[in-house]
Amino acid sequence: MSGIQVRALTKAYRHLGRAPVNVLHGVDLEVQPGEVVGLIGPNGAGKTTLMSCIVGFLRPDGGEVSIDGRASDDLGIRRRTGFVPERMNFDRRATGRAFLRYMAKLAEVPHAELDARVDALLERLGLANAQKRLLSQYSRGMLQRIGMAQALVREPEFLFLDEPTSGLDPHGVFLVRELIAEQKARGAAVLLNSHQLAEVEKVCDRVVFLHKGVIARAETLHDTTRMTIDVTLLAGSFDPATIAEATGLTPAENVLSATVASEAEIADLVARVIGTGAGVIDVRRRTADLESIFRGTA
Amino acid sequence: MSATVILETLRRHFAHIAYVAAGLLIVIIAATMAAVDAPAGSTFQVFSLFMIIAGCQIIGPEFSSGTLQLILSKPIHRSRYLLSRVAGVVLALWIAIALAYTADVAARAIGGHDIAWRVGGGAAVSIAAEAVLLVSLMALFGAFTRSYMNVALYLGGQILLSMVAGVLQMMQRMERGAFSAFGAFLRAHPGVVNTIRTIDQNLYPDAPRIPFDRNWLLLVFSNAAIALLLACVIFRRREVPYGAD
To answer: Which of A285, A290, B213, B238 gets the highest tally of CB atoms within 10 A of its CB?
Structure first.
Protein backbone atom coordinates (compact mmCIF):
# COMPACT_ATOMS: atom_id res chain seq x y z
CA MET A 1 0.00 0.00 0.00
CA SER A 2 1.44 3.39 -0.94
CA GLY A 3 1.34 6.67 0.93
CA ILE A 4 1.26 7.34 4.64
CA GLN A 5 -1.13 5.19 6.64
CA VAL A 6 -2.04 5.67 10.30
CA ARG A 7 -4.52 3.30 11.92
CA ALA A 8 -5.98 3.54 15.46
CA LEU A 9 -2.84 5.25 16.75
CA THR A 10 -2.61 5.68 20.51
CA LYS A 11 0.18 7.29 22.49
CA ALA A 12 0.64 8.21 26.12
CA TYR A 13 3.56 9.91 27.84
CA ARG A 14 4.76 8.19 30.96
CA HIS A 15 6.83 9.86 33.65
CA LEU A 16 8.16 8.11 36.69
CA GLY A 17 5.76 8.44 39.62
CA ARG A 18 3.09 10.21 37.58
CA ALA A 19 -0.04 8.98 35.89
CA PRO A 20 0.34 8.48 32.13
CA VAL A 21 -0.81 11.38 29.98
CA ASN A 22 -2.83 10.06 27.06
CA VAL A 23 -2.12 12.24 24.06
CA LEU A 24 -3.49 10.33 21.08
CA HIS A 25 -6.66 8.25 21.28
CA GLY A 26 -6.97 6.14 18.14
CA VAL A 27 -6.04 8.44 15.29
CA ASP A 28 -6.68 7.35 11.70
CA LEU A 29 -4.99 9.27 8.92
CA GLU A 30 -4.02 8.69 5.34
CA VAL A 31 -1.91 10.77 2.99
CA GLN A 32 -1.80 9.64 -0.61
CA PRO A 33 1.03 10.33 -3.06
CA GLY A 34 0.54 13.74 -4.65
CA GLU A 35 -1.61 14.93 -1.77
CA VAL A 36 -0.95 17.69 0.74
CA VAL A 37 -2.68 17.18 4.09
CA GLY A 38 -2.74 19.86 6.75
CA LEU A 39 -2.76 19.06 10.43
CA ILE A 40 -4.38 21.77 12.52
CA GLY A 41 -5.53 22.00 16.10
CA PRO A 42 -4.99 23.95 19.29
CA ASN A 43 -1.83 23.68 21.37
CA GLY A 44 -1.72 20.37 23.23
CA ALA A 45 -4.00 18.65 20.71
CA GLY A 46 -1.30 16.09 19.92
CA LYS A 47 -0.15 17.33 16.49
CA THR A 48 3.55 17.19 17.30
CA THR A 49 3.16 13.79 18.96
CA LEU A 50 1.28 12.49 15.93
CA MET A 51 3.96 13.72 13.56
CA SER A 52 6.71 12.31 15.82
CA CYS A 53 5.00 8.90 15.78
CA ILE A 54 4.62 8.99 12.00
CA VAL A 55 8.23 10.04 11.38
CA GLY A 56 9.39 7.35 13.80
CA PHE A 57 10.84 9.48 16.59
CA LEU A 58 8.25 8.13 19.05
CA ARG A 59 6.96 4.58 19.43
CA PRO A 60 3.16 4.35 19.40
CA ASP A 61 1.51 2.46 22.26
CA GLY A 62 -1.13 1.02 19.97
CA GLY A 63 -2.26 1.08 16.39
CA GLU A 64 -0.16 1.09 13.29
CA VAL A 65 1.91 3.54 11.30
CA SER A 66 3.22 2.61 7.90
CA ILE A 67 4.77 4.47 5.02
CA ASP A 68 4.44 2.72 1.71
CA GLY A 69 3.57 -0.41 3.67
CA ARG A 70 6.74 -0.36 5.77
CA ALA A 71 7.70 0.91 9.22
CA SER A 72 8.54 4.62 9.19
CA ASP A 73 11.97 4.08 10.79
CA ASP A 74 12.93 1.58 8.09
CA LEU A 75 16.10 2.91 6.47
CA GLY A 76 14.66 2.33 3.01
CA ILE A 77 11.75 4.61 3.92
CA ARG A 78 14.10 7.14 5.52
CA ARG A 79 15.87 7.45 2.14
CA ARG A 80 12.54 8.54 0.67
CA THR A 81 11.54 10.82 3.55
CA GLY A 82 12.13 14.51 4.20
CA PHE A 83 11.50 16.20 7.53
CA VAL A 84 11.53 19.89 8.39
CA PRO A 85 11.58 20.59 12.13
CA GLU A 86 9.93 23.66 13.57
CA ARG A 87 13.28 24.95 14.78
CA MET A 88 16.40 24.13 12.85
CA ASN A 89 19.11 23.27 15.36
CA PHE A 90 22.58 22.32 14.29
CA ASP A 91 26.15 23.19 15.15
CA ARG A 92 26.19 26.94 14.51
CA ARG A 93 29.88 26.93 13.59
CA ALA A 94 29.09 25.17 10.31
CA THR A 95 28.55 27.18 7.15
CA GLY A 96 25.24 26.84 5.36
CA ARG A 97 26.92 24.94 2.54
CA ALA A 98 28.84 22.60 4.87
CA PHE A 99 25.63 21.82 6.75
CA LEU A 100 23.73 21.06 3.56
CA ARG A 101 26.56 18.89 2.19
CA TYR A 102 26.62 16.94 5.46
CA MET A 103 22.87 16.36 5.34
CA ALA A 104 23.09 15.38 1.67
CA LYS A 105 25.79 12.84 2.49
CA LEU A 106 23.69 11.44 5.34
CA ALA A 107 20.77 11.25 2.93
CA GLU A 108 23.02 9.17 0.67
CA VAL A 109 22.89 11.54 -2.29
CA PRO A 110 25.32 10.01 -4.85
CA HIS A 111 28.74 11.65 -4.62
CA ALA A 112 28.74 12.68 -8.29
CA GLU A 113 25.47 14.61 -7.84
CA LEU A 114 26.14 16.00 -4.40
CA ASP A 115 27.58 19.43 -5.20
CA ALA A 116 25.19 20.07 -8.05
CA ARG A 117 22.24 19.16 -5.84
CA VAL A 118 23.48 21.36 -2.98
CA ASP A 119 24.11 24.29 -5.37
CA ALA A 120 20.67 23.92 -6.91
CA LEU A 121 18.95 23.88 -3.53
CA LEU A 122 20.92 26.85 -2.19
CA GLU A 123 19.96 28.76 -5.33
CA ARG A 124 16.31 27.67 -5.16
CA LEU A 125 15.99 28.61 -1.49
CA GLY A 126 17.67 31.98 -2.05
CA LEU A 127 20.69 31.11 0.10
CA ALA A 128 23.40 31.00 -2.59
CA ASN A 129 24.89 34.29 -1.42
CA ALA A 130 24.86 33.18 2.22
CA GLN A 131 26.25 29.68 1.68
CA LYS A 132 29.68 30.54 3.12
CA ARG A 133 28.27 32.26 6.18
CA LEU A 134 28.14 30.42 9.50
CA LEU A 135 24.74 29.20 10.64
CA SER A 136 25.20 31.40 13.71
CA GLN A 137 24.92 34.39 11.36
CA TYR A 138 21.70 33.14 9.77
CA SER A 139 18.38 34.78 10.64
CA ARG A 140 15.45 32.65 11.83
CA GLY A 141 13.98 32.76 8.34
CA MET A 142 17.24 31.70 6.72
CA LEU A 143 17.52 28.78 9.15
CA GLN A 144 13.99 27.81 8.28
CA ARG A 145 14.86 27.89 4.59
CA ILE A 146 18.01 25.81 4.99
CA GLY A 147 15.94 23.41 7.10
CA MET A 148 13.61 23.10 4.12
CA ALA A 149 16.59 22.60 1.80
CA GLN A 150 17.97 19.67 3.83
CA ALA A 151 14.57 17.96 3.68
CA LEU A 152 14.45 18.27 -0.11
CA VAL A 153 18.03 17.20 -0.68
CA ARG A 154 17.01 13.79 -2.02
CA GLU A 155 13.66 14.66 -3.59
CA PRO A 156 11.60 12.88 -0.92
CA GLU A 157 8.46 10.94 -1.68
CA PHE A 158 7.15 11.59 1.82
CA LEU A 159 7.57 15.05 3.24
CA PHE A 160 6.83 16.07 6.83
CA LEU A 161 6.75 19.77 7.57
CA ASP A 162 6.41 21.18 11.05
CA GLU A 163 5.54 24.86 10.92
CA PRO A 164 7.65 25.43 7.78
CA THR A 165 6.62 29.08 7.41
CA SER A 166 7.15 30.12 11.01
CA GLY A 167 9.61 33.00 11.14
CA LEU A 168 9.57 33.54 7.37
CA ASP A 169 8.99 36.87 5.65
CA PRO A 170 6.27 37.04 2.95
CA HIS A 171 8.82 36.22 0.24
CA GLY A 172 9.89 33.12 2.18
CA VAL A 173 6.25 32.13 2.69
CA PHE A 174 5.60 32.35 -1.08
CA LEU A 175 8.73 30.28 -1.67
CA VAL A 176 7.67 27.54 0.72
CA ARG A 177 4.22 27.55 -0.84
CA GLU A 178 5.78 27.10 -4.28
CA LEU A 179 8.05 24.32 -3.02
CA ILE A 180 5.14 22.43 -1.48
CA ALA A 181 3.24 22.74 -4.77
CA GLU A 182 6.30 21.41 -6.62
CA GLN A 183 6.56 18.43 -4.28
CA LYS A 184 2.88 17.70 -4.76
CA ALA A 185 3.29 17.93 -8.54
CA ARG A 186 6.20 15.46 -8.29
CA GLY A 187 3.86 13.03 -6.54
CA ALA A 188 5.14 13.42 -2.98
CA ALA A 189 2.82 12.82 -0.03
CA VAL A 190 3.07 15.90 2.19
CA LEU A 191 1.93 16.22 5.80
CA LEU A 192 1.97 19.81 7.02
CA ASN A 193 1.62 20.82 10.64
CA SER A 194 0.87 24.52 10.89
CA HIS A 195 -0.92 27.10 12.94
CA GLN A 196 -1.17 29.47 10.00
CA LEU A 197 -4.66 28.62 8.83
CA ALA A 198 -4.55 30.88 5.76
CA GLU A 199 -1.40 29.09 4.62
CA VAL A 200 -2.89 25.66 5.23
CA GLU A 201 -5.96 26.67 3.24
CA LYS A 202 -3.81 27.75 0.31
CA VAL A 203 -1.56 24.71 0.00
CA CYS A 204 -3.50 21.74 1.37
CA ASP A 205 -5.85 19.41 -0.45
CA ARG A 206 -7.25 18.17 2.81
CA VAL A 207 -7.11 19.28 6.38
CA VAL A 208 -7.58 17.25 9.55
CA PHE A 209 -8.48 18.98 12.77
CA LEU A 210 -6.94 17.29 15.77
CA HIS A 211 -8.58 18.01 19.10
CA LYS A 212 -7.67 16.35 22.42
CA GLY A 213 -5.92 13.50 20.64
CA VAL A 214 -8.68 12.58 18.21
CA ILE A 215 -9.43 13.71 14.69
CA ALA A 216 -12.47 15.83 15.34
CA ARG A 217 -13.02 16.77 11.73
CA ALA A 218 -11.56 16.25 8.27
CA GLU A 219 -12.28 18.60 5.38
CA THR A 220 -11.46 18.37 1.73
CA LEU A 221 -10.32 21.80 0.58
CA HIS A 222 -9.39 21.28 -3.03
CA ASP A 223 -11.33 18.29 -4.29
CA THR A 224 -11.29 18.22 -8.06
CA THR A 225 -13.79 15.38 -8.26
CA ARG A 226 -16.54 16.80 -6.02
CA MET A 227 -17.45 20.31 -4.98
CA THR A 228 -20.29 21.99 -3.21
CA ILE A 229 -21.77 25.14 -4.73
CA ASP A 230 -24.27 27.69 -3.45
CA VAL A 231 -26.57 29.33 -6.01
CA THR A 232 -28.07 32.52 -4.56
CA LEU A 233 -31.49 33.30 -6.05
CA LEU A 234 -33.15 36.69 -6.34
CA ALA A 235 -35.72 36.84 -3.54
CA GLY A 236 -39.29 36.73 -4.84
CA SER A 237 -38.23 35.61 -8.30
CA PHE A 238 -38.69 31.88 -7.77
CA ASP A 239 -41.09 29.22 -6.62
CA PRO A 240 -39.37 26.58 -4.44
CA ALA A 241 -41.61 23.80 -5.75
CA THR A 242 -40.80 24.65 -9.38
CA ILE A 243 -37.09 24.77 -8.58
CA ALA A 244 -37.35 21.39 -6.82
CA GLU A 245 -39.15 19.94 -9.82
CA ALA A 246 -36.54 21.22 -12.27
CA THR A 247 -33.41 20.43 -10.28
CA GLY A 248 -34.36 17.87 -7.66
CA LEU A 249 -33.08 20.30 -5.01
CA THR A 250 -34.99 22.48 -2.58
CA PRO A 251 -33.64 25.95 -1.84
CA ALA A 252 -33.10 26.94 1.78
CA GLU A 253 -34.31 30.53 2.01
CA ASN A 254 -32.93 31.87 -1.28
CA VAL A 255 -29.85 29.65 -1.54
CA LEU A 256 -29.79 26.46 -3.54
CA SER A 257 -26.94 24.16 -2.55
CA ALA A 258 -25.70 21.31 -4.72
CA THR A 259 -22.82 18.89 -4.97
CA VAL A 260 -21.41 18.70 -8.47
CA ALA A 261 -18.51 16.99 -10.18
CA SER A 262 -17.63 19.44 -12.94
CA GLU A 263 -18.09 22.97 -14.22
CA ALA A 264 -20.40 21.57 -16.92
CA GLU A 265 -22.71 20.32 -14.19
CA ILE A 266 -22.70 23.79 -12.62
CA ALA A 267 -23.66 25.35 -15.96
CA ASP A 268 -26.41 22.75 -16.43
CA LEU A 269 -27.82 23.37 -12.95
CA VAL A 270 -27.79 27.14 -13.39
CA ALA A 271 -29.47 26.80 -16.81
CA ARG A 272 -32.24 24.68 -15.29
CA VAL A 273 -32.77 27.20 -12.48
CA ILE A 274 -32.92 30.12 -14.92
CA GLY A 275 -35.30 28.02 -17.07
CA THR A 276 -37.87 28.17 -14.23
CA GLY A 277 -37.79 31.97 -14.46
CA ALA A 278 -35.78 32.41 -11.26
CA GLY A 279 -33.20 35.20 -11.04
CA VAL A 280 -29.68 34.09 -10.13
CA ILE A 281 -27.58 36.62 -8.20
CA ASP A 282 -24.47 34.58 -7.44
CA VAL A 283 -22.92 31.16 -7.93
CA ARG A 284 -20.15 30.37 -5.49
CA ARG A 285 -18.07 27.34 -4.66
CA ARG A 286 -18.26 26.58 -0.98
CA THR A 287 -14.90 26.27 0.78
CA ALA A 288 -14.28 25.10 4.31
CA ASP A 289 -13.73 28.02 6.63
CA LEU A 290 -10.75 26.84 8.64
CA GLU A 291 -11.09 29.62 11.14
CA SER A 292 -14.64 28.52 11.92
CA ILE A 293 -13.52 24.89 12.15
CA PHE A 294 -10.71 25.92 14.46
CA ARG A 295 -13.09 27.91 16.66
CA GLY A 296 -15.50 24.98 16.62
CA THR A 297 -18.25 27.05 15.09
CA ALA A 298 -18.36 25.57 11.61
CA MET B 1 30.95 3.43 10.98
CA SER B 2 30.15 6.45 8.88
CA ALA B 3 33.13 8.45 7.58
CA THR B 4 30.75 11.40 7.06
CA VAL B 5 29.79 11.49 10.73
CA ILE B 6 33.38 10.95 11.91
CA LEU B 7 34.65 13.84 9.76
CA GLU B 8 31.79 16.08 10.87
CA THR B 9 32.60 15.28 14.52
CA LEU B 10 36.25 16.19 13.91
CA ARG B 11 35.19 19.41 12.17
CA ARG B 12 33.02 20.37 15.15
CA HIS B 13 35.97 19.88 17.50
CA PHE B 14 38.45 21.79 15.37
CA ALA B 15 35.93 24.64 14.99
CA HIS B 16 35.27 24.76 18.74
CA ILE B 17 37.20 27.40 20.64
CA ALA B 18 37.25 25.27 23.82
CA TYR B 19 38.92 22.35 22.01
CA VAL B 20 41.46 24.56 20.25
CA ALA B 21 42.29 26.50 23.43
CA ALA B 22 42.57 23.38 25.59
CA GLY B 23 44.67 21.65 22.92
CA LEU B 24 47.06 24.60 22.70
CA LEU B 25 47.30 24.78 26.47
CA ILE B 26 48.18 21.09 26.69
CA VAL B 27 50.84 21.43 23.99
CA ILE B 28 52.36 24.39 25.86
CA ILE B 29 52.27 22.48 29.16
CA ALA B 30 53.89 19.44 27.50
CA ALA B 31 56.66 21.55 25.98
CA THR B 32 57.25 23.47 29.21
CA MET B 33 57.40 20.34 31.37
CA ALA B 34 59.74 18.64 28.90
CA ALA B 35 61.95 21.73 28.81
CA VAL B 36 62.47 21.48 32.58
CA ASP B 37 63.01 17.71 32.20
CA ALA B 38 59.91 16.66 34.16
CA PRO B 39 59.28 12.88 34.18
CA ALA B 40 58.23 11.63 30.75
CA GLY B 41 54.47 11.30 30.31
CA SER B 42 53.61 13.52 33.27
CA THR B 43 51.81 15.92 30.90
CA PHE B 44 49.06 13.39 30.39
CA GLN B 45 47.92 13.82 34.01
CA VAL B 46 46.09 16.97 32.89
CA PHE B 47 44.27 15.19 30.09
CA SER B 48 41.24 13.97 32.09
CA LEU B 49 39.49 17.34 32.08
CA PHE B 50 40.21 17.78 28.39
CA MET B 51 38.73 14.35 27.65
CA ILE B 52 35.58 15.16 29.62
CA ILE B 53 35.14 18.48 27.78
CA ALA B 54 35.50 16.75 24.42
CA GLY B 55 33.47 13.66 25.31
CA CYS B 56 30.44 15.31 26.87
CA GLN B 57 29.09 16.46 23.49
CA ILE B 58 27.90 12.99 22.53
CA ILE B 59 24.14 12.44 22.13
CA GLY B 60 22.77 14.13 25.31
CA PRO B 61 23.26 17.73 24.13
CA GLU B 62 22.21 16.75 20.60
CA PHE B 63 19.00 15.33 22.04
CA SER B 64 18.24 18.52 23.94
CA SER B 65 19.03 20.90 21.10
CA GLY B 66 16.94 18.98 18.56
CA THR B 67 19.92 18.21 16.31
CA LEU B 68 19.37 14.50 16.82
CA GLN B 69 15.90 14.61 15.30
CA LEU B 70 17.32 16.21 12.19
CA ILE B 71 20.01 13.52 11.92
CA LEU B 72 17.73 10.58 12.63
CA SER B 73 15.33 11.66 9.90
CA LYS B 74 18.10 10.63 7.51
CA PRO B 75 18.85 7.03 6.52
CA ILE B 76 21.49 6.28 9.13
CA HIS B 77 21.22 3.48 11.64
CA ARG B 78 21.22 4.78 15.20
CA SER B 79 24.01 2.48 16.37
CA ARG B 80 26.13 3.42 13.37
CA TYR B 81 25.63 7.10 14.16
CA LEU B 82 26.48 6.64 17.84
CA LEU B 83 29.62 4.60 17.15
CA SER B 84 30.75 7.06 14.48
CA ARG B 85 30.33 9.96 16.88
CA VAL B 86 32.37 8.08 19.49
CA ALA B 87 35.06 7.34 16.89
CA GLY B 88 35.15 11.02 15.88
CA VAL B 89 35.59 12.23 19.46
CA VAL B 90 38.22 9.57 20.16
CA LEU B 91 40.12 10.60 17.03
CA ALA B 92 39.97 14.26 18.08
CA LEU B 93 41.44 13.28 21.46
CA TRP B 94 44.11 11.07 19.90
CA ILE B 95 45.18 13.97 17.69
CA ALA B 96 45.58 16.15 20.80
CA ILE B 97 47.50 13.36 22.57
CA ALA B 98 49.79 12.93 19.55
CA LEU B 99 50.44 16.68 19.46
CA ALA B 100 51.24 16.75 23.19
CA TYR B 101 53.60 13.78 22.80
CA THR B 102 55.28 15.42 19.82
CA ALA B 103 55.68 18.67 21.77
CA ASP B 104 57.17 16.69 24.68
CA VAL B 105 59.70 14.91 22.43
CA ALA B 106 60.57 18.09 20.51
CA ALA B 107 61.10 20.15 23.67
CA ARG B 108 63.33 17.44 25.17
CA ALA B 109 65.36 17.24 21.96
CA ILE B 110 65.77 21.03 21.81
CA GLY B 111 66.57 21.21 25.53
CA GLY B 112 69.18 18.46 25.19
CA HIS B 113 67.42 16.13 27.64
CA ASP B 114 67.11 12.37 27.28
CA ILE B 115 63.99 11.27 25.45
CA ALA B 116 62.31 8.44 27.34
CA TRP B 117 60.59 6.98 24.30
CA ARG B 118 59.26 3.91 26.11
CA VAL B 119 57.93 5.66 29.23
CA GLY B 120 56.51 8.63 27.32
CA GLY B 121 55.06 6.39 24.61
CA GLY B 122 53.55 4.09 27.23
CA ALA B 123 51.88 7.05 28.95
CA ALA B 124 50.55 8.28 25.60
CA VAL B 125 49.14 4.84 24.74
CA SER B 126 47.56 4.56 28.21
CA ILE B 127 45.89 7.94 27.98
CA ALA B 128 44.73 7.13 24.44
CA ALA B 129 43.14 3.90 25.74
CA GLU B 130 41.63 5.77 28.67
CA ALA B 131 40.12 8.22 26.19
CA VAL B 132 38.33 5.33 24.49
CA LEU B 133 36.83 4.21 27.81
CA LEU B 134 35.87 7.71 28.94
CA VAL B 135 34.20 8.59 25.63
CA SER B 136 32.39 5.22 25.60
CA LEU B 137 31.06 5.89 29.11
CA MET B 138 29.99 9.39 28.04
CA ALA B 139 28.14 7.81 25.11
CA LEU B 140 26.51 5.29 27.45
CA PHE B 141 25.37 7.95 29.93
CA GLY B 142 24.32 10.25 27.10
CA ALA B 143 22.25 7.47 25.52
CA PHE B 144 19.62 7.73 28.23
CA THR B 145 19.97 11.29 29.54
CA ARG B 146 19.60 14.79 28.21
CA SER B 147 21.92 17.70 27.88
CA TYR B 148 25.17 17.39 29.86
CA MET B 149 23.83 14.89 32.39
CA ASN B 150 26.42 12.40 31.08
CA VAL B 151 29.20 14.51 32.65
CA ALA B 152 27.28 14.72 35.92
CA LEU B 153 26.80 10.94 35.95
CA TYR B 154 30.45 10.30 35.06
CA LEU B 155 31.89 12.62 37.70
CA GLY B 156 29.18 11.78 40.25
CA GLY B 157 29.84 8.07 39.79
CA GLN B 158 33.57 8.56 40.17
CA ILE B 159 33.19 10.56 43.38
CA LEU B 160 30.49 8.29 44.82
CA LEU B 161 32.33 5.03 44.10
CA SER B 162 35.64 6.20 45.57
CA MET B 163 33.84 7.67 48.60
CA VAL B 164 31.80 4.51 49.22
CA ALA B 165 34.88 2.30 48.78
CA GLY B 166 36.86 4.50 51.19
CA VAL B 167 34.12 4.61 53.83
CA LEU B 168 33.53 0.84 53.63
CA GLN B 169 37.26 0.15 53.96
CA MET B 170 37.34 2.38 57.04
CA MET B 171 34.32 0.61 58.53
CA GLN B 172 35.86 -2.75 57.76
CA ARG B 173 38.59 -1.92 60.27
CA MET B 174 36.15 -0.88 63.03
CA GLU B 175 36.11 -3.37 65.88
CA ARG B 176 34.50 -1.10 68.48
CA GLY B 177 31.80 1.53 68.51
CA ALA B 178 28.48 1.98 66.76
CA PHE B 179 29.58 0.42 63.51
CA SER B 180 31.45 -2.55 64.96
CA ALA B 181 28.72 -5.03 63.92
CA PHE B 182 28.79 -3.64 60.38
CA GLY B 183 32.60 -3.76 60.44
CA ALA B 184 32.43 -7.42 61.47
CA PHE B 185 30.02 -8.07 58.63
CA LEU B 186 32.37 -6.41 56.12
CA ARG B 187 35.33 -8.38 57.45
CA ALA B 188 33.34 -11.60 57.17
CA HIS B 189 32.25 -10.65 53.64
CA PRO B 190 35.24 -8.94 52.01
CA GLY B 191 33.52 -9.38 48.64
CA VAL B 192 31.34 -6.34 49.37
CA VAL B 193 34.28 -3.92 49.49
CA ASN B 194 36.09 -5.76 46.72
CA THR B 195 33.05 -5.50 44.45
CA ILE B 196 32.81 -1.73 44.96
CA ARG B 197 36.55 -1.36 44.35
CA THR B 198 36.38 -3.56 41.26
CA ILE B 199 33.52 -1.51 39.80
CA ASP B 200 35.49 1.66 40.56
CA GLN B 201 38.65 0.26 38.95
CA ASN B 202 36.73 -0.92 35.90
CA LEU B 203 34.97 2.36 35.26
CA TYR B 204 37.73 4.69 36.39
CA PRO B 205 40.97 2.72 36.14
CA ASP B 206 44.19 4.17 37.50
CA ALA B 207 46.98 4.55 34.97
CA PRO B 208 49.12 1.38 34.67
CA ARG B 209 52.42 1.40 36.56
CA ILE B 210 54.38 -0.04 33.66
CA PRO B 211 54.12 1.16 30.06
CA PHE B 212 52.25 -1.07 27.62
CA ASP B 213 50.53 -3.11 30.37
CA ARG B 214 48.68 -5.66 28.24
CA ASN B 215 46.18 -6.67 30.95
CA TRP B 216 45.35 -3.08 31.73
CA LEU B 217 44.76 -2.33 28.06
CA LEU B 218 42.57 -5.43 27.77
CA LEU B 219 40.53 -4.31 30.78
CA VAL B 220 40.04 -0.80 29.38
CA PHE B 221 39.07 -1.92 25.88
CA SER B 222 36.75 -4.67 27.18
CA ASN B 223 34.93 -2.23 29.42
CA ALA B 224 34.71 0.33 26.62
CA ALA B 225 33.22 -2.35 24.33
CA ILE B 226 30.63 -3.28 26.96
CA ALA B 227 29.76 0.39 27.51
CA LEU B 228 29.35 0.92 23.76
CA LEU B 229 27.22 -2.19 23.38
CA LEU B 230 24.91 -1.02 26.16
CA ALA B 231 24.85 2.50 24.71
CA CYS B 232 23.79 1.14 21.30
CA VAL B 233 21.04 -1.05 22.82
CA ILE B 234 19.66 1.87 24.87
CA PHE B 235 19.98 4.43 22.08
CA ARG B 236 18.25 2.17 19.55
CA ARG B 237 15.19 2.00 21.78
CA ARG B 238 15.20 5.61 22.87
CA GLU B 239 12.35 7.86 21.88
CA VAL B 240 13.42 11.16 20.36
CA PRO B 241 10.56 13.63 20.51
CA TYR B 242 11.40 16.77 18.61
CA GLY B 243 11.46 20.00 20.49
CA ALA B 244 12.40 17.84 23.47
CA ASP B 245 13.63 20.68 25.66
So the answer is: A290
